[in-house]
Amino acid sequence: MESKWPEGARCLVNITVDFDGLSNETGKKLLPIGKYSHGRYSAKRGVPRFLEIFARHNVPVTFFVPGYDAECFPESVRSIAAAGHEIGAHGYLHEAFDLGDEEPFYLRKTHQILSDLLDTPPVGWRNPGGGKSDQTVRVLRELGYIYDSSEKAADWPYFQMVGGERLTDFVNLPDNTSSLDDAPFYRDSMTPPSEVLAQWKAEFDTAYAEGGYYDLIVHPRSGFGSGGPARAEALEDLIIYIKRFPGVLMQRQVDTARWCLKNPEDWPERTHPWSAQ
Ligand SMILES: [Zn+2]
Q1: Which domain holds residue 73?
Q2: What DSSP character marks residue 34?
Q3: 109 CA to middle of ligand 1, Å?
Q4: List of residues 6+ apart from 112 with CB closer than 8 A
Q5: DSSP string, 176-209
Protein backbone atom coordinates (compact mmCIF):
# COMPACT_ATOMS: atom_id res chain seq x y z
CA MET A 1 0.00 0.00 0.00
CA GLU A 2 1.24 3.46 -0.88
CA SER A 3 1.96 5.41 2.27
CA LYS A 4 0.94 9.00 2.86
CA TRP A 5 2.02 9.15 6.48
CA PRO A 6 5.29 10.44 7.97
CA GLU A 7 8.42 8.32 7.61
CA GLY A 8 6.68 6.13 5.05
CA ALA A 9 4.47 4.62 7.74
CA ARG A 10 1.53 2.48 6.76
CA CYS A 11 -0.56 3.35 9.81
CA LEU A 12 -0.32 6.28 12.21
CA VAL A 13 -1.10 5.77 15.91
CA ASN A 14 -1.55 8.57 18.44
CA ILE A 15 -2.15 7.45 22.02
CA THR A 16 -3.72 10.24 24.03
CA VAL A 17 -4.34 10.52 27.77
CA ASP A 18 -6.94 12.82 29.27
CA PHE A 19 -5.61 13.63 32.77
CA ASP A 20 -9.07 14.39 34.22
CA GLY A 21 -8.16 14.62 37.89
CA LEU A 22 -9.82 16.74 40.54
CA SER A 23 -11.11 19.14 37.89
CA ASN A 24 -13.71 16.61 36.84
CA GLU A 25 -15.46 16.51 40.20
CA THR A 26 -14.76 20.13 41.18
CA GLY A 27 -16.21 21.33 37.88
CA LYS A 28 -19.39 19.46 38.70
CA LYS A 29 -19.47 21.07 42.15
CA LEU A 30 -18.72 17.74 43.84
CA LEU A 31 -16.23 17.47 46.68
CA PRO A 32 -13.40 15.34 45.18
CA ILE A 33 -13.10 13.17 48.26
CA GLY A 34 -14.90 10.13 49.58
CA LYS A 35 -16.90 8.43 46.84
CA TYR A 36 -15.84 11.14 44.37
CA SER A 37 -12.09 10.67 44.87
CA HIS A 38 -11.50 8.83 41.57
CA GLY A 39 -9.88 11.94 40.14
CA ARG A 40 -7.18 11.96 42.82
CA TYR A 41 -6.06 8.60 41.48
CA SER A 42 -4.82 10.21 38.25
CA ALA A 43 -1.84 12.00 39.77
CA LYS A 44 -1.23 9.56 42.61
CA ARG A 45 -1.26 6.25 40.77
CA GLY A 46 -2.48 6.46 37.19
CA VAL A 47 0.09 8.88 35.76
CA PRO A 48 3.13 7.10 37.26
CA ARG A 49 1.81 3.75 36.07
CA PHE A 50 1.16 5.06 32.56
CA LEU A 51 4.59 6.69 32.39
CA GLU A 52 6.21 3.36 33.27
CA ILE A 53 4.27 1.62 30.49
CA PHE A 54 5.12 4.24 27.86
CA ALA A 55 8.79 4.17 28.91
CA ARG A 56 8.91 0.36 28.77
CA HIS A 57 7.73 0.42 25.17
CA ASN A 58 9.31 3.71 24.12
CA VAL A 59 6.00 5.25 23.04
CA PRO A 60 5.69 9.07 23.05
CA VAL A 61 2.11 10.18 23.73
CA THR A 62 0.00 13.28 24.33
CA PHE A 63 -1.58 14.14 27.69
CA PHE A 64 -4.47 16.64 27.71
CA VAL A 65 -4.53 18.41 31.07
CA PRO A 66 -7.22 20.71 32.53
CA GLY A 67 -5.73 23.92 33.96
CA TYR A 68 -7.11 23.24 37.44
CA ASP A 69 -5.43 19.84 37.55
CA ALA A 70 -2.12 21.45 36.60
CA GLU A 71 -2.55 23.87 39.51
CA CYS A 72 -3.32 20.98 41.91
CA PHE A 73 -0.61 18.61 40.68
CA PRO A 74 2.22 20.62 39.05
CA GLU A 75 4.85 17.98 39.77
CA SER A 76 2.76 15.29 38.11
CA VAL A 77 2.37 17.42 34.98
CA ARG A 78 6.08 18.26 34.97
CA SER A 79 6.92 14.56 35.24
CA ILE A 80 4.90 13.89 32.09
CA ALA A 81 6.73 16.59 30.12
CA ALA A 82 10.11 15.49 31.52
CA ALA A 83 9.46 12.02 30.10
CA GLY A 84 9.20 13.54 26.59
CA HIS A 85 5.44 13.46 26.24
CA GLU A 86 3.34 16.33 24.96
CA ILE A 87 1.03 18.37 27.20
CA GLY A 88 -2.12 19.78 25.57
CA ALA A 89 -4.93 21.85 27.09
CA HIS A 90 -8.25 20.32 28.19
CA GLY A 91 -10.38 23.11 29.67
CA TYR A 92 -9.91 24.65 33.11
CA LEU A 93 -12.41 22.78 35.28
CA HIS A 94 -13.13 20.22 32.59
CA GLU A 95 -16.19 22.26 31.63
CA ALA A 96 -18.61 19.86 29.98
CA PHE A 97 -20.95 22.72 29.13
CA ASP A 98 -20.91 25.72 26.81
CA LEU A 99 -18.94 28.56 28.42
CA GLY A 100 -20.46 31.17 26.11
CA ASP A 101 -18.84 34.60 26.45
CA GLU A 102 -16.56 33.33 29.22
CA GLU A 103 -14.87 30.82 26.94
CA PRO A 104 -11.94 33.08 25.84
CA PHE A 105 -11.13 33.85 29.49
CA TYR A 106 -10.88 30.18 30.42
CA LEU A 107 -8.97 29.19 27.28
CA ARG A 108 -6.41 31.90 28.09
CA LYS A 109 -6.32 31.03 31.79
CA THR A 110 -5.49 27.37 31.17
CA HIS A 111 -3.00 28.33 28.49
CA GLN A 112 -1.20 30.61 30.95
CA ILE A 113 -1.13 27.97 33.69
CA LEU A 114 0.35 25.32 31.39
CA SER A 115 2.78 27.77 29.77
CA ASP A 116 4.08 28.89 33.17
CA LEU A 117 4.55 25.29 34.23
CA LEU A 118 6.27 23.95 31.12
CA ASP A 119 9.24 24.90 28.98
CA THR A 120 7.06 25.17 25.90
CA PRO A 121 3.44 26.39 25.74
CA PRO A 122 0.78 23.91 24.60
CA VAL A 123 -0.24 23.93 20.94
CA GLY A 124 -2.91 21.24 21.11
CA TRP A 125 -6.39 21.31 22.60
CA ARG A 126 -9.05 18.76 23.37
CA ASN A 127 -12.54 19.87 24.18
CA PRO A 128 -13.63 18.59 27.61
CA GLY A 129 -17.19 18.28 26.32
CA GLY A 130 -18.52 21.82 26.24
CA GLY A 131 -18.71 22.34 22.53
CA LYS A 132 -16.67 24.28 20.03
CA SER A 133 -17.38 27.27 17.83
CA ASP A 134 -15.62 29.65 15.47
CA GLN A 135 -14.82 31.71 18.60
CA THR A 136 -13.03 28.72 20.13
CA VAL A 137 -10.85 28.26 17.07
CA ARG A 138 -10.16 32.01 16.79
CA VAL A 139 -8.90 32.23 20.38
CA LEU A 140 -6.89 29.03 20.11
CA ARG A 141 -5.16 30.29 16.96
CA GLU A 142 -4.41 33.63 18.66
CA LEU A 143 -2.74 31.65 21.45
CA GLY A 144 -0.63 29.71 18.95
CA TYR A 145 -2.51 26.43 18.87
CA ILE A 146 -2.21 24.37 15.71
CA TYR A 147 -4.65 21.55 16.32
CA ASP A 148 -7.82 20.33 17.99
CA SER A 149 -8.29 16.70 18.94
CA SER A 150 -12.05 16.68 19.57
CA GLU A 151 -13.95 16.32 16.34
CA LYS A 152 -15.79 13.12 15.52
CA ALA A 153 -16.54 13.98 11.90
CA ALA A 154 -13.93 11.85 10.16
CA ASP A 155 -11.49 8.97 10.54
CA TRP A 156 -8.43 10.91 9.45
CA PRO A 157 -7.02 14.42 10.04
CA TYR A 158 -8.52 17.29 8.10
CA PHE A 159 -8.20 21.05 7.98
CA GLN A 160 -10.54 23.12 10.09
CA MET A 161 -13.31 25.07 8.38
CA VAL A 162 -14.19 28.44 9.93
CA GLY A 163 -16.78 30.74 8.41
CA GLY A 164 -16.78 28.71 5.21
CA GLU A 165 -13.02 29.08 4.89
CA ARG A 166 -10.57 26.23 5.05
CA LEU A 167 -7.77 27.15 7.44
CA THR A 168 -4.24 26.18 6.55
CA ASP A 169 -2.72 26.74 10.00
CA PHE A 170 -5.05 24.61 12.13
CA VAL A 171 -5.78 20.94 11.75
CA ASN A 172 -8.36 18.62 13.28
CA LEU A 173 -7.07 15.30 14.55
CA PRO A 174 -10.38 13.51 15.05
CA ASP A 175 -11.00 11.33 18.07
CA ASN A 176 -13.50 8.57 18.69
CA THR A 177 -15.06 8.84 22.12
CA SER A 178 -17.05 5.65 21.71
CA SER A 179 -15.09 2.58 20.71
CA LEU A 180 -11.60 4.11 21.15
CA ASP A 181 -12.17 5.72 24.54
CA ASP A 182 -11.94 3.84 27.82
CA ALA A 183 -14.54 6.01 29.60
CA PRO A 184 -17.76 4.63 28.07
CA PHE A 185 -16.60 1.05 28.50
CA TYR A 186 -15.67 1.45 32.14
CA ARG A 187 -18.27 4.04 33.15
CA ASP A 188 -21.36 3.04 31.19
CA SER A 189 -21.15 -0.65 30.39
CA MET A 190 -18.61 -1.90 32.96
CA THR A 191 -16.95 -3.91 30.20
CA PRO A 192 -14.13 -6.20 31.38
CA PRO A 193 -10.63 -5.09 30.31
CA SER A 194 -10.24 -8.23 28.16
CA GLU A 195 -13.23 -7.20 26.04
CA VAL A 196 -12.09 -3.59 25.84
CA LEU A 197 -8.74 -4.83 24.60
CA ALA A 198 -10.49 -7.00 21.99
CA GLN A 199 -12.44 -3.94 20.79
CA TRP A 200 -9.34 -1.78 20.56
CA LYS A 201 -7.47 -4.51 18.67
CA ALA A 202 -10.37 -4.82 16.20
CA GLU A 203 -10.31 -1.07 15.60
CA PHE A 204 -6.56 -1.21 15.07
CA ASP A 205 -6.81 -4.13 12.64
CA THR A 206 -9.18 -2.19 10.40
CA ALA A 207 -7.21 1.05 10.66
CA TYR A 208 -4.07 -0.85 9.72
CA ALA A 209 -5.79 -2.59 6.83
CA GLU A 210 -6.84 0.69 5.26
CA GLY A 211 -3.59 2.50 6.06
CA GLY A 212 -5.39 4.76 8.45
CA TYR A 213 -5.15 6.81 11.58
CA TYR A 214 -5.70 5.47 15.10
CA ASP A 215 -6.33 7.88 17.99
CA LEU A 216 -6.85 6.12 21.33
CA ILE A 217 -8.13 7.94 24.43
CA VAL A 218 -7.39 6.67 27.92
CA HIS A 219 -7.67 8.22 31.37
CA PRO A 220 -5.27 7.64 34.29
CA ARG A 221 -8.18 7.76 36.73
CA SER A 222 -9.73 4.91 38.59
CA GLY A 223 -13.50 4.77 38.11
CA PHE A 224 -14.02 5.41 34.41
CA GLY A 225 -10.30 5.32 33.56
CA SER A 226 -7.53 2.82 32.85
CA GLY A 227 -5.31 3.84 35.77
CA GLY A 228 -5.84 0.70 37.84
CA PRO A 229 -3.64 -2.40 37.40
CA ALA A 230 -5.87 -4.65 35.26
CA ARG A 231 -7.04 -1.89 32.93
CA ALA A 232 -3.53 -0.47 32.60
CA GLU A 233 -2.38 -3.94 31.65
CA ALA A 234 -4.96 -3.98 28.84
CA LEU A 235 -3.46 -0.72 27.56
CA GLU A 236 0.03 -2.20 27.72
CA ASP A 237 -1.13 -5.36 25.94
CA LEU A 238 -2.58 -3.18 23.17
CA ILE A 239 0.74 -1.36 22.73
CA ILE A 240 2.57 -4.71 22.56
CA TYR A 241 0.04 -5.91 19.96
CA ILE A 242 0.32 -2.81 17.80
CA LYS A 243 4.11 -2.90 17.88
CA ARG A 244 4.09 -6.33 16.26
CA PHE A 245 2.83 -4.84 13.00
CA PRO A 246 5.42 -3.50 10.54
CA GLY A 247 5.12 0.08 9.36
CA VAL A 248 3.27 1.53 12.35
CA LEU A 249 4.35 4.97 13.54
CA MET A 250 3.40 5.84 17.12
CA GLN A 251 3.91 9.50 17.91
CA ARG A 252 2.62 12.54 19.80
CA GLN A 253 -0.26 14.47 18.31
CA VAL A 254 1.82 17.63 18.01
CA ASP A 255 4.14 15.75 15.65
CA THR A 256 1.17 14.57 13.60
CA ALA A 257 -0.25 18.11 13.45
CA ARG A 258 3.06 19.70 12.44
CA TRP A 259 3.54 17.14 9.72
CA CYS A 260 0.01 17.65 8.37
CA LEU A 261 0.49 21.43 8.25
CA LYS A 262 3.88 21.11 6.60
CA ASN A 263 2.80 18.57 3.98
CA PRO A 264 -0.76 19.53 3.09
CA GLU A 265 -0.63 17.66 -0.22
CA ASP A 266 0.81 14.44 1.12
CA TRP A 267 -1.59 13.20 3.70
CA PRO A 268 -4.60 10.98 3.19
CA GLU A 269 -7.17 13.67 3.91
CA ARG A 270 -7.40 14.46 0.24
CA THR A 271 -8.78 11.00 -0.39
CA HIS A 272 -11.49 11.63 2.19
CA PRO A 273 -14.14 14.32 2.11
CA TRP A 274 -13.26 16.90 4.73
CA SER A 275 -15.96 18.11 7.02
CA ALA A 276 -17.34 21.63 7.05
CA GLN A 277 -17.47 21.72 10.90
ZN1 LIG B 1 -11.67 14.81 29.79
Answers
A1: 9-271
A2: G
A3: 17
A4: none
A5: -TTTTBHHIIIIIS---HHHHHHHHHHHHHHHHH
